Amino acid sequence: MHNDAGCTRRGFVKLTAAVVLGLGLPICGAAVAGEPPAVLRAGTAKTDITPAKPVMLAGYASRKELSQGVHDPLSARVVAFEQDGKRFVLVSSDIIGYYGATESVRKAVVAACGLQPSELFLTAIHTHSAPIVTLGGQQANANNVEYTKALEEKLVAAVRDALAHTAPVQIAAGSGSSPVGANRREVVRDAAGKTRIQLGRNPSLLTDREVQVLRISRADTGNLMAVVFAYATHSTAMGPRNLLVSGDVHGLAEQFLEKHLDGEVIAPAFAGASGNIDPWFRVLPKFNTANGWIPEPVLMGTMLGEEVVHVLDGIKKPLASGPIKTAFKTLVLPAKPRAKADAASAVRLSEFNVTVGRVGDVAVVGLGGEVFNEIGKAIKAGSPFPHTLVMTHCNGSAGYLPIKEAYPEGGYEVESSRFGPEAAEKVVQESLRLLRELKGD
User: Fold this and answer.
1) Model pTM?
2) Residue 385: closest CA among 315, 318, 429, 319
3) Same domain, yes or no, for 229 and 347?
């Protein structure tokens, strides 16, 4: 069973078609009359995006069957900040990514709420047990197209709802650590002694285990409104033989947190720099519950969620409540040579979107692809902000972005990447340059 797919939360209030079209709502982000303009305000919303019909699930080309049920519901969660006429909207979606629908959904939300393109961080948690998002094409399943169109409408409604119901807030941040993610570039040796990289588990390589947490509380009562968290792992505990809809590791962590924290708190998750990171238990065929066994994605999602709670308990001091600043840039990166590619297609293949924003001392870097863990670490290490959340699958779907050192090793990520070996360093440099510009008060 799952919640009504038409629900949006503030209290899971049912949104009508009139709300989707923007009828009868205040202008997005409107401040209350007489309130000082420098007050930081925020609103939240949550909408159920669980498919109502069988769909093709995303993430594995070998999976040809339609979904056969729902293990746990999918949601989209919104946290919208507003201060002095500027907005910063975080959208976390329990899907693999927007891919071919990215621009359609972004433009719809931006237009409906009068946002600047840089003010919207449209992201996906990258679960491989959610519907393929598509607006059509030769291979597209009709149920998936229907799902995608409904998803766009729900996201527009949820963002409008969050922006229309803001209240003064305080923010605070902290970080913890979790072992749920592991480097997946396993080194194997063939009979002749030659090594190659395969997708598996390579625990000998250090990874960024940081659990990044942002707390949003009501300024008047101190009551918790939302807990934003980012962690670097693919949500691929379930493999191509699984036919049940699920949020996988990130989605199950969100659900655990919202159940544990109770009330109206929402807990949007964001996938950190995890192009070469998988969950410790990966690509399982099904949710096994035999003889009291706890399904591994439930176990790992709970572990991740519990670490977020530990971080929350340790956060004491609120942070500066402004200013809000955002920036968006499409980078043209070095692309892999392609024998028959003309100049136009080479430029298209090398595009990569970077979105950056700040709310006071907290910065967010949204990367439009699947970037290697080392890229996220470098951005955080070089950031001029004391707290910098890195999230991927944000405002773009450029695919894998490996580090230069991975190219001689090869492997799935390198082989499928659009980009050349120098591209990762440019993304780091440009991200840090944009952050420095935001920091220049």
Assistant:
1) 0.90
2) 319
3) no
